Amino acid sequence: MTGVFIGTDAFAAGVLTAMVGTSEAPSLVITRPDSAKGRGRQLSPPPVAVAAAELGIDFIQPEDIGDASVLAAIDAIDPPALALCAYGAIIKEPLLSARPILNLHPSLLPRWRGAAPIERALMAGDDETGVSIIQLVEALDAGPMAAQESLTVTPVEDFASLSARLIELGARMLGASLAAAREGSLSFVDQPTEGLTYAERIEAQDRLLGTSGNAEDAARVVRALFPHIGARLELPSGDFVGVREASAEQDGPSQGVFEEQDGDLLVGFSSGALRVTRLTPSGGREMTSSDWLRGRPELGPS
């Protein structure tokens, strides 16, 4: 273990874990400082810090990754290249040019540059995605590629299942690129100039399932945001429920009408209907739609 891994979120933690036991497992992990989370706003370590601690890998959490002490820690290991995945902060000079930084990005670049490539691919209904290993440059996800591999997105894929497959693929590819850097055989090709799209960060409005749209689009949003963010649906009462599992159907009630059908919540959209099978009431726990519908006679069987 003579490498350096830079990352922060749960996806990066999965990649780090997958690399342990390989020839390119890191000896030092750099991640973000603890941050306030949850309703209590208590300080919590990022997923990569938790994973590094569990795996017994030394890690640091600098306020500024460009600090001289961080550069000294990297120089002490002297890797031919640095591994990076979902760090969540801009890396500037002098670290940016000190040595190659191999960035694992879970999309087929230049499609879905940006913060939410897995979610946006699922929301768009892409039937193919993959992993690109690129050299980090100043421009967002625009660096030349050391490797790129694709995989098929299944019709019922959600974020959990797709990210797990991308982690496995990405860890293998990142390890191979790091090995090539160590052997002096690493090479790059420019990204294609066509097909550029941006994966904007998921905002509150992206979570809301408006019935004026297409039920199939809504079902894709549910899968894209499960389980980490969650889609939301506004009830006729004005309350919201989190939609955890749902599928689209061609026929159903009129737009904006909510009713029970075969124990599920069926919601009419402008095109088609959304069959909700699992949900989370506001302030409650996740449950089946059948359990939630009990005691709601206004949503009786159709």
Show the helix and strand layout.
Blueprint: E1 3-7, H1 10-19, E2 26-30, E3 35-37, E4 42-44, H2 47-55, E5 58-60, H3 68-77, E6 82-85, H4 95-98, E7 101-105, E8 113-114, H5 117-124, E9 128-135, E10 145-152, H6 159-183, E11 198-199, H7 204-207, H8 215-224, E12 231-234, E13 240-249, E14 258-261, E15 264-268, E16 273-281, E17 287-288, H9 289-293
Parallel strand pairs: 1-2, 1-6, 2-5, 6-7, 8-11
Antiparallel strand pairs: 3-4, 7-9, 9-10, 12-13, 13-16, 14-15, 15-16, 16-17
Helix pairs in contact: 1-2, 1-6, 5-8
Short characterization:
It is built from nine helices and 17 strands. It is α/β, with parallel strands linked by helices and 302 residues long. It has two domains: 3-105 and 131-140 and 156-187, 3-Layer(aba) Sandwich (Rossmann fold), CATH 3.40.50.170; 204-299, Formyl transferase, C-terminal domain (Methionyl-tRNA Fmet Formyltransferase, Chain A, domain 2), CATH 3.10.25.10.
For the largest beta-sheet, the strand count, sense and barrel status come to: 7 strands, mixed
Which homologous superfamily in CATH is the superfamily of the largest domain?
Answer: Formyl transferase, N-terminal domain
Residue-averaged pLDDT = 95
Would you count the extended β strands for me? Answer: 17
Supply the CATH class of the largest domain. Alpha Beta
Through-space gap between termini: 62 Å
Question: What portion of the residues fall into strands of 2 or more residues?
Answer: 25-35%
Order of helices and strands: EHEEEHEHEHEEHEEHEHHEEEEEEH
What form results from the Cα inertia axes? elongated
- Strands ordered across the widest β-sheet: 5-2-1-6-7-9-10
* CATH architecture name of the largest domain: 3-Layer(aba) Sandwich
Radius of gyration: 22 Å
* Structural class by sheet pairing and helices: alpha/beta
Parts with pLDDT < 50 across at least 5 consecutive residues: none
Q: What is the total number of structural domains?
A: 2
Number of helices: 9
Give the helix proportion (percent range): 25-40%
CATH fold call of the largest domain: Rossmann fold
Region (Disordered): 279-302
EC number: 2.1.2.9
Protein name: methionyl-tRNA formyltransferase
Pfam families: Formyl_trans_C, Formyl_trans_N
